[in-house]
Amino acid sequence: MDRRNFTKFALSGLAFSFLSDSMGRAALPTDSGLIGAEPAKLAPVPATPRVVAEKPYAPLLERAKAALDNHAHHFELRDRVAIVDFDAPSKDMRMHIVDLIGGQTSSYLVSHGRGSDPGHSGWLHSFSNEPNSLASSQGAFRTGDIYVGQHGRSMRLIGLDPHNNNAEARAIVVHGADYVSEDHVAAWGKCGRSEGCFAVAPHLVPQVLALLGPGRMLYADKLGTA
After folding, report:
1. CA distance 70 to 82
2. How does pLDDT run across 46-87, given as a tens digit for each residue?
3. What is the pLDDT of residues 181-223, one digit of tens each?
4. How far from each other are the two terminal CA atoms of the chain, in whole angstroms?
5. From the CB of residue 99, how many other CB atoms can be counted at a distance below 10 Å?
6. What is the C-alpha separation between 65 and 63, in angstroms, rounded?
7. Closest by alpha carbon to 200, among 107, 79, 89, 126?
8. How far apart are CA 195 and CA 176, in angstroms?
9. pLDDT higher for 32 or 187?
10. Are 24 and 14 in contact (CB under 8 A)?
11. How far apart are CA 153 and CA 135, in angstroms?
12. What is the dihedral of CA 177, 179, 184, 188, to 10 degrees?
């Protein structure tokens, strides 16, 4: 090959090499658009904090568990308890049937007595164990027999504490009432009042009585945490 053709061939090869190299570099991703720039560092993803929401009735449940131990000889069944959180207004689902083994909870609207809320504010203001007080009583109750009375299927309650031991004489029971329902709350902003009984929505009576059954504990109180 003569010198002229050799020079021409060499220049062509050099141009092709330069072009290929440029194309190859252009295909490389860079964060700044400049060849050889350092890739930008990705900001670390913050760890999502694990928020464990404490149930608002947790303090009352602990008191109920203590009462269950204190009155252990009265209870054949200790797998479930019902707690009634009278710190909450009657428009809230404040009766909770808690599975102490599995941890599941079923919650319901429940009334308080008119003697505990004379002005019908929707909040329980006081307790009473006195006959004819028409008020709610606090403390531990043992669920008794299921019977059919003027309110349909109902469950008797036996008061186990000095401040609720008139429950049987006062006929304090769990029963259904039309004034305890979501429709009533939607219309009036609160449930109606009982004469001291734990009234629930009529269509939920079978479920409540089935979950409780005779021989378990219902615990009601107002801890002042609202």
Report:
1. 16
2. 433 333 346 889 999 999 999 999 999 999 899 999 999 999
3. 999 999 999 999 999 999 999 999 999 999 999 999 999 999 9
4. 101
5. 13
6. 5
7. 107
8. 13
9. 187
10. no
11. 22
12. -170
